[in-house]
Amino acid sequence: RNAQRTRIRWRPAQYATDDSLCGYDAVNERIYSTFDSVSIGPQLSITQGNLLLQTAISCDNARMARSTYATSDPRYAQFLIYSPDGTNPALTSKACMIGICTAAANLGGYVGSDSEGYGFSPGDGKLYCNVSRVATGTAATYSVTISVAVDPKASILTIRIRNGTIIEYVF
Fold first, then answer.
1. pTM above 0.85?
2. Distances (CA, A) of 22 to 15, 34, 65, 67
3. Tell me: the pLDDT tens digits for 63-78?
4. C-alpha to C-alpha distances, 8 to 39, 52, 129, 152, 167, nearest whole angstrom
5. Torsion angle, alpha carbons of 130, 132, 134, 139, to 10
6. CA 135, CA 114: separation in Å to the nearest integer?
7. What's the CA gap between 55 and 64, in Å, rounded?
């Protein structure tokens, strides 16, 4: 397990023009998701308007944060992973995970550590569910944008790394 501090920056959908990137409330106003300060695992902190998630100390990856907006409609989000000291060392397998999960996922585990979610490990380029590798792509590095798109109705999860690498998984 990685003992480095890591930050994940959520790039909110309001920077995009595509309506599929956000939801709508009862009066047809856009709803943008951020990290949910109530649904974060141990030793995590959220700052900058709930857009920046980081480990409070150097620790392993056994923790998770969920977003404020759950949906059964197709959605998309972008993430940027970087180290707080700016050194951006190599990511190791499962040092940091990005993905989707249900409300029943264990906040004390990484996304993909149980059957309630799918987690992409930028360090090794693999997609995990219930601790098992279910798909393989290419590893990423710090400071690279990672996009996650999910279509729950079609049961398709797409992970795209800025360099063009794509994992498309049917769940």
1. no
2. 11, 11, 19, 12
3. 788 887 777 777 778 8
4. 16, 6, 21, 24, 20
5. 110
6. 16
7. 10
* Nearest residue to 108 (alpha-carbon basis) of 21, 157, 42: 42
How many Å from the N-terminal Cα to the C-terminal Cα in the chain?
Answer: 27
Burial class (CB in 10 A: 0-12, 13-18, 19+), 164: exposed
**How large is the C-alpha radius of gyration of the chain?**
15
Tokens at 110, concatenated: 């990484």
Token pair of 89 as six digits: 């060392």
| Tokens, residue 139 | 């590893």
CA distance 139 to 153: 28
How high does pLDDT run on average in the chain?
Answer: 77
Which residue is associated with the tokens 């990423």? 140
Q: Following DSSP, what letter does each residue of 90-110 receive, concatenated?
A: PPPTTSS-EEEE-TTS-TTS-
Return all residues near 28 (Cβ < 8 A) that are at least 6 apart.
Answer: none
Residue type at position 113: S
Cα 73 to Cα 15, 76, 132, 153, distances in angstroms: 19, 10, 26, 7
